[in-house]
Specification:
about 80 residues; 434 Repressor (Amino-terminal Domain); about 55% helix
Length: about 80
């Protein structure tokens, strides 16, 4: 099973941090993305290769009233 790269993990962690800062649950994200709660759990899991699409990141940014750029790491990362 493919695992997330360090770049993908950084994106997931940034989404998760902003989600929590805005008091949004995994269930809420699932609702706005029209996916299951379990899918969001998979994305936030370190052991799963599941990842947000660009369109999903855009929807999350729109809902959180931020730029999708806020989900990206501040600096480039080394390859795994």
């Amino acid at each position: 099973m493919r695992k997330k790269s360090s770049f993908e993990l950084a994106i997931v962690e940034n989404v998760k941090r902003l989600r929590k800062q805005n008091n949004k649950s995994q269930t809420y994200l699932a609702m706005i993305l029209d996916v299951s709660d379990g899918y969001i759990g998979q994305i936030e899991s370190l052991n799963s290769g599941s990842m947000y699409s660009y369109d999903q990141l855009n929807k999350i940014a729109k809902d959180l009233n931020c730029s999708p750029k806020e989900f990206m790491p501040e600096n480039s990362l080394n390859f795994d």
